[in-house]
Each structure stands twice: as C-alpha cells, then as structure tokens.
C-alpha cells in the first residue's frame, strides 16, 4: 500500500530524529549556558555548569546558600541570584535533588568510576574542572576523551 | 542610503579606544571619590604604597589557604591569577593590563565583600579599598 509505505518512509527518520537528542543528552551533550549573568557570575570561579547537570532541587539549594558555597562566599545581589536561579531551574536535568554537588550525582560517579588519582593531576586539580579532560565541556560536550 | 567611507569608520574606531579609556578612568575616579567621602573628615589621600602592602600581605585572620590577595592574584599584579581551589584563571588586577578593572561599583563591592573576609577575616575599610585601587590603577 502506497500510503503505508510513505508512512514508513517518514516514520523511520522521524523516530531517529526524536531519539537522537535524548540519546546525546544522556551520554555526551547538554545545551550550553546561554545566559549572560550565569556565564559571568558562575564562570568567575569555575566553569559555568550547564543547567541540565543538576535537578531543580539541587540548583535551588545551591542558589539559596551562596554565602556558604561549598566553603566559599559566593554572595550575589538578590536580583542577580534570582535571575541565575530562574535560568538554572528552567533548564534543570534529572538526578537526586538532595545532592547539591554534580560530582555526587549517581550518573556522574558512574561515568567517572576510575582511580581518584586522576583528579589529583596538576592539570586537573579538581573534579569540577570538566574541561581538563572534556575539551568541549564549556560548550556542553562531554564525550569521553 | 549614503555609503559611509571606510576611512571614516577606521577614524571612528581609532577614536573609540581612548574614549573608552577615559570612560573607565572616570568611572574609577567616581568609585575612589565615594571611598574618600566614606573615610570622612580626616581623609588625607589614598596611598599606593599602603595598597601594595595590603595586596602582598601576608595577613592573619582570614582563611589559612588565602593569607594574601597575592595568593590568588600572584605577587605580580600584571600576571594572570588563579582561583586557589579551582585553578580558574583570574584576569590580571593591574589596570594597565585589564583596563576595565574597578569601573563598576557593584562589581568592586562584590569582590571586596567576599575577598576581604577570606584574606583578612574582616571587611576592608573604605581607606583600604581606596589604597588598593590606587595601587593597582598605577600598575
């Protein structure tokens, strides 16, 4: 049947299109940060992490406690903090909202299940320096390097 | 539409750099004037020398990891610094290298508000803030 064949011709590419972003999302790509205040304020001290790397609850917990940001004072004017939180929550991903650190999330630990010594290398310095190993990290690419 | 001469465009670009510098200088002066006013009646001018001593430290009272501004910014204000935990680059503090340093009141207050307690264990005084900026504006 001509109609059915046409449908199949369309269905296969459409299915692939629909699957592709989800597949990439989970494994190696997240939408990059496109928010000036987030890029500037978060990026002053570390890479501005993409919203999809933490669930909304974790972002809210982080943005609600900037005066003690993992031991650092990262205080911001309330309007700036609110704007950044809005952006992060709007693009939030999945995960355990009781864990504020990306590096505590189960998917992260699963993906980095190797000797902790790798993080101590001088060019890495800290687990939060994604770009030390993932060269495209700032643009959201986390392919295995 | 009348076509703009490429020469005119080049001329306008050549004008904009000094104009930006003048804007930065004016903004920095406004911030310094504000701190001078906050020092009060006994104010006798800011000191680049005192600013240098503040920058280099070392100080006691702050976090043990950050006893001086120079811990992260390096003792050379013209050099790129590094965040003490993440290693993230910090653009040089010297105005000669980073011309828009100390040109936003909000930005300046944000940084002093975070970094003085980390280095000194207390807020900086208006005199210290003015000394600090005066030192780095001359670097």
Structural class of chain B: mainly alpha
Number of domains of chain A: 1
Average pLDDT taken over every residue of chain B: 92
Largest sheet of chain A: none
Strand content of chain A: under 5%
CATH class of chain B: Mainly Alpha
Secondary-structure element series of chain B: HHHEEHH
Major beta sheet, strand line-up of chain B = 1-2
CATH architecture name of chain B: Orthogonal Bundle
**Going by CATH, what is the homologous superfamily of chain B?**
Cytochrome c-like domain
- Per DSSP E runs of 2 or more residues, the count of β-strands of chain B stands at 2
**Percent range for β-strand residues of chain B:** under 5%
Summarize the structure.
By secondary structure, chain A is an all-alpha fold. Chain A has helices at 2-27, 36-43, 56-63, 78-90, 106-111. Chain A has one domain (31-139).
